[in-house]
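Tokens in:
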């Protein structure tokens, strides 16, 4: 098997999405699973020279003091979504990743996330000190394993919202403010983004947290000739909205209201049980309807934590629309899926596509990846089909 040459650095490396991603990557390397759920395995992306799974090596940041194997086993014993034998077959690799895990940062993540942090996570460092420490971890990971490039993927818990207008608009201004009021507002997701991009590494924000969305951080990516994309992986109810809403637009069926009720029980659900953290997620899930329809119907998005569900999530949606002669009609659907198993293959796809973009020298926001996100950076088009066509068009250009 070839030596790994590309690093995947997962922020929140021992959470459900990360653990599932790692087990999935390990199983793909062993040829123990098929490619269901992996967009990069579709026929239209063959011949691009996407990296083989054997080329990737995983490390990460984590704030909790837990073993990765134990977290993976929770998907076996509590959520019952993967087989015990699969996790056991990956145990040696999971133990090695424990050794490649470093303490993360909890700056401006809010009290709900802070309560999960172990004693080994620094609590008094400034934003500049946190960035320097995170960069040291990333550089040591890359250098000690002889990696050509590292892709940092944020799969940590959702942070409280922050108004981007409170931050300086340019990177030089924000950099000067790292020890000032503006720097003090920066949440952990943005500190991880700055740490990665400043080193010339790639950064993917799979969460709805602020991440690399501020214009100043996007400017940093261009200055360091690197790339980034986000935010909030589109895996379930919002994916269906992005497919179904264009139907109503194209058939000229006015939507009067769209109500979605979501329940799930994993760590993300526990964090989103805090109303402050929940605001960030709801804003991400609720914005696309107006962009697709061209007007804003009455909407309601609710998210509730139900502990017994484990990693399973259910969404009930009720769409009230007006038909010919003013007749009210409804569409109702139920979406049930395993949160981490919906997300993990997308993380692997994003890493593969980003690695190719790095090899081809692409810079800035990787807008061709819009179909993977609820709130894609620098993309106003929210129809899933149109977003997916952007990915196909990019693949055509790369192949040509």
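Residues out:
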């Amino acid at each position: 098997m070839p030596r790994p040459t590309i690093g995947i650095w997962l922020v929140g490396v021992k959470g459900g999405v990360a653990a599932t991603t790692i087990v999935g990557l390990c199983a793909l390397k062993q040829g123990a699973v098929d490619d269901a759920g992996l967009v990069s395995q579709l026929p239209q992306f063959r011949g691009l020279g996407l990296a083989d799974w054997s080329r990737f090596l995983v490390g990460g940041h984590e704030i909790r003091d837990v073993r990765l194997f134990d977290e993976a086993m929770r998907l076996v014993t509590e959520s019952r979504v993967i087989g015990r034998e699969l996790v056991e077959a990956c145990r040696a690799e999971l133990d090695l990743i424990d050794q490649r895990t470093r303490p993360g940062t909890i700056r401006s993540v809010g009290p709900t996330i802070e309560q999960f942090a172990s004693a080994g996570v620094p609590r008094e460092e400034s934003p500049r000190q946190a960035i320097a420490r995170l960069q040291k971890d990333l550089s040591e990971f890359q250098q000690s394993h002889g990696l050509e490039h590292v892709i940092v993927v944020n799969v940590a818990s959702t942070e409280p919202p922050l108004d981007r207008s409170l931050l300086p608009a340019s990177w030089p201004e924000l950099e000067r403010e790292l020890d000032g009021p503006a720097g003090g507002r920066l949440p952990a997701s943005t500190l991880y983004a700055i740490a990665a991009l400043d080193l010339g590494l790639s950064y993917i924000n799979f969460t709805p947290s602020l991440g690399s969305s501020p214009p100043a951080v996007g400017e940093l990516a261009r200055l360091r000739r690197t790339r980034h994309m986000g935010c909030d992986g589109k895996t379930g109810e919002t994916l269906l909205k992005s497919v179904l809403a264009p139907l109503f637009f194209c058939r000229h069926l006015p939507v009067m209201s769209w109500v979605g009720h979501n329940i799930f029980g994993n760590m993300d659900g526990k964090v989103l049980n805090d109303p402050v953290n929940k605001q960030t997620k709801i804003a991400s899930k609720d914005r696309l309807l107006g962009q697709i329809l061209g007007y804003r119907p009455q909407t309601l998005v609710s998210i509730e934590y139900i502990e017994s569900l484990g990693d399973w999530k259910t969404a009930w949606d009720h769409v009230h629309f007006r038909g010919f002669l003013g007749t009210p009609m409804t569409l109702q659907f139920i979406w049930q899926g395993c949160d981490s198993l919906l997300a993990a293959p997308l993380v692997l796809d994003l890493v593969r596509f980003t690695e190719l973009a790095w090899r081809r020298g692409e810079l800035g926001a990787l807008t061709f990846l819009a179909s993977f996100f609820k709130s894609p950076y620098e993309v106003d088009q929210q129809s899933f089909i149109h977003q997916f066509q952007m990915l196909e068009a990019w693949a055509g250009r790369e192949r040509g």
